[in-house]
Structures are given as C-alpha cells and as structure tokens.
Amino acid sequence: MEYLVNVLYIVAFAMFIYGLMGLTGPKTAVRGNQIAAVGMGVAVVATLIAIRDTSNWVLIVAGLVIGVVLGVPPALRTKMTAMPQLVALFNGVGGGTVALIAYAEFLDSDGFTAFAHGESPTVHIVIASLFAAIIGSISFWGSVIAFLKLQETLPGRPIGIGRLQQPLNAVLLIGAVALAVIIGIKAIDPTGPTSQWWIVGVLVLAAVLGLMVVLPIGGADMPVVISLLNALTGLSAAAAGLALNNQAMIVAGMIVGASGSILTNLMAKAMNRSIPAIVAGGFGGGGVAAAVGDGAAKTAKSTSAADAAIQMAYANQVIVVPGYGLAVAQAQHAVKDMAKLLESKGVEVKYAIHPVAGRMPGHMNVLLAEADVEYDAMKEMDDINDEFARTDVTLVIGANDVTNPAARNDPSSPIHGMPILNVDQSKSVIVLKRSMNSGFAGIDNPLFFADTTSMLFGDAKKSVAEVTEELKAL
C-alpha cells in the first residue's frame, strides 16, 4: 500500500511540474492548469489511501465538496477586471489553511509533544510546524488586505502609522517567534501540558503582522505583493508538508514558493525597487503630485475618434499599450477587431506589455489572449522599448504609471528610476482615458500634456469601437 501511495505521489509531482510548464504561454496555459488540477486529484487520492483511519474520509470528502461549492462559482463568474483580487483571496485561503493545520496538529498532539501518531517530535518537525503557522497566518491576513484594496473596499493609498510602523512590525515578529520558541522548547523537552493559548498567541501576532505589513503598501505595488504572498503561501505549505511527512504538500509548496519568489524578484527589478523597500510600504496611492516641467503649465489636448482613426490608418506601425483601464472597460475584443482592420490596411500592430501593468502578474497578457491576440504580437518591455522611437502612433489604453516619463526625467518623482515603456518617444501618442485622474500610484503623468499627445476621453471599449467604425469609412 505504501508503494502505491509513493507511486501516485510521483505521478502527481510530475503532473504539477508539467502543468506549470504549460503556463509559460497563453496557448498552453489552459491545458497546463487542467493537467495540474488532475495531478492534485491524484495527490488527494493518494492521501486518502495513506490515511489509516478511514473514518476521517467523511470529513475530508465533506471538505472537498465545500471547497468546490465555494470555489468554482466565483472562478467561473468573476470578470477579468476582478481576477487580481480573486487570485489574492484564493492565495490567502491556502495560507489560512496551513495555519489551521498547524493549530489542529498542536491540539491533536498535546502541544506537539505526541506528534505524528504518538511519535516523539524531532526538532525539524516542530520548527516546520511553527514556521508554517506563522507564515501561513501572515499570508492569509495579508492577502485579505490585498483583496480589500484591489476590490477598493479599502483605499489604495498606504495606510500606516508613520515612523512607528516598522518598529511595530518588528515587535510583532519578535513576539510571534518568541512564543514559537517557547512552544518548541516545551514540545521537545516537555515539563508539563502546554496551553493552547501559546499557539493562539503565535497565530494572532502573525495575523496582526500580516495586516500591518500590507496596509502601508500602496496600490501601485499590489502586483508585487500578490506574488510575494503567493510565495509565502507556498513556503508555508511546504513546511507543513515536512511536518506531516506529506510529499505532495512538500513538492507543491516548494514549486509555488520557488516560482513565486522568482516572479517577485523579477517584478521588483521591473520597478527598480527592492523587495524590502516594497514591504516597507509607503509608495503607491499617496498624494497626487503635479505634473512637472513644461507640461505642468499646459492643457491636455483632446481628440476625436475620427482624427485617431486617420492617424492610425496612415501609420506604418501602431503600438498598443494596455493597462488596467482596458480591463475595466473589457475592451480587449474591441482592440483586437480594430487591430485586425488596421492590419488589413497594411499597418503593423504590436502590443507593449509592462511587467507590472494591471493589478496582478500577467494581467494584460491574459486579457489579450482572451481576445485571441497572437502571442508573438505581445512584446515585453525590454523587447519593445527600442521600437517606440520609430513608431508612428502609440495607443495607450488606461496605462498610467508604466508610461510616466517622470520615472526617467524627474528625480523628485516617487517612481523615479522605475523602468517604463518609452511611449513618449513615439511620433504621436493617443491616450484613452475616462478623465484626467491619476493612476493607481496616485501621481500625474506628464505624458498627457506633451505636444505629441492627444487625449481621447470616454469608455475605452466604446472609444475603440468608434475608432474602428471610422477606420471602416476610410
């Protein structure tokens, strides 16, 4: 029986890894998800077989049914505009589950003193369990705040207590670790029963730390925060798997933790910021900064759908820069139709994707792929930036911060040093926005006041459709 369980776990691991490989491109992403899901099903079957007490199967199956009932409907009904907060919430549930597992094991084993079916706990098992409790709790409550900010139930601006923020976070972390050390000492060399309030204290301090870490982080950093919390959830799951001797949790957790860590690092570099600086908070969604330089004294020029159509129809190359405004308007299909019409007129159309455009990693790629935009037409920032200088028209749809030249030109700007799309180097720029409101980072964009920029105000989907109709008439 043990041999069968191990074989099934190996099959599950292979499917996890193969499924993850499928996520490298939009064409294979759906299949990759399906393969990984089947792999998880295999892992669940293996776990059921490995359980000695079959009476627990009822509880496990009941949990699976509840999870399906609560998880599938939101996944099917959630619009792409709300996908970032759904990802944050689902990720948080994983971290919360790990924290509850650690708590349940503490109660079941009398403070870890009779861990794993009556066996005496080893140091690494106790450390792994307590690590999972702390990180899982931080991940869950941090993800809740990320969800509320993305849902705009909480404001996107940083919410903190100023200079006391970091000392408070340090006290919370030290307190949680100190309680964990006490629990570990009692578990390895018990001198009497350990009160459950010790583990409750660990979970509560970690929960407050999770809240205090994410609250001061502004909306502009949310894509990085989601990725970081995802990595933490993976690490906590791997730690819990180590404590429970569950290979499926170890491998799956390490895959999530490693991939999330790599992605977090890449996104932080894309913003020219360190991960500690992001966690320290205070950026994104703050006070609105005025446009700088000559543009500050200028008024943005508005244009019409007809003028925009003429500009693009006689261009050699048009670059579309999608942002969160495209997601809100659900304009990806309209953009695809417009691009198809432009291409029929001999205009080359490309899409410039900034690593942190939107509100979660890969947000724009998923949106465009949903509209059957060719993957080869989606260009990453490093691949497309040199082309803006020889581009006739760049169409910016709801992208604010990732096109802000202040990041390159204004040392006083909060985003100075962040790599951006060189949209301002295009011969002509058309920006689609509802209004002149600032982006998620809360700062104005001098691009909107540039001599080569025209603003097409209105709902992005409607505006693109109007441009398409005008193109048909040309």
TrEMBL record:
Keywords recorded for this protein, A-Z: Cell inner membrane, Cell membrane, Membrane, NAD, NADP, Translocase, Transmembrane, Transmembrane helix
Any Pfam family the entry gives: PNTB
GO molecular function terms noted in the UniProt entry: NADP binding; proton-translocating NAD(P)+ transhydrogenase activity
Family: Belongs to the PNT beta subunit family.
InterPro entries named in the record: DHS-like_NAD/FAD-binding_dom, NADH_DH_b, PNTB-like
Lineage, uppermost ranks: Bacteria, Bacillati, Actinomycetota, Actinomycetes, Mycobacteriales
Stated role: The transhydrogenation between NADH and NADP is coupled to respiration and ATP hydrolysis and functions as a proton pump across the membrane.
Membrane-traversing stretches: 6-23, 35-51, 57-76, 88-106, 126-148, 168-185, 197-217, 224-244, 250-268
Cellular component annotations (GO), alphabetically ordered: plasma membrane
Localisation per UniProt entry: Cell inner membrane
UniProt-listed Enzyme Commission number(s): 7.1.1.1
Protein name: NAD(P) transhydrogenase subunit beta
Topological type in the membrane: Multi-pass membrane protein
Main location: membrane
Top-level division of the source organism's lineage: Bacteria
Catalytic reaction equation(s): NAD(+) + NADPH + H(+)(in) = NADH + NADP(+) + H(+)(out)
Domain NADP transhydrogenase beta-like: 6-469
Native organism: Rhodococcus wratislaviensis NBRC 100605
Gene, per the UniProt record: pntB
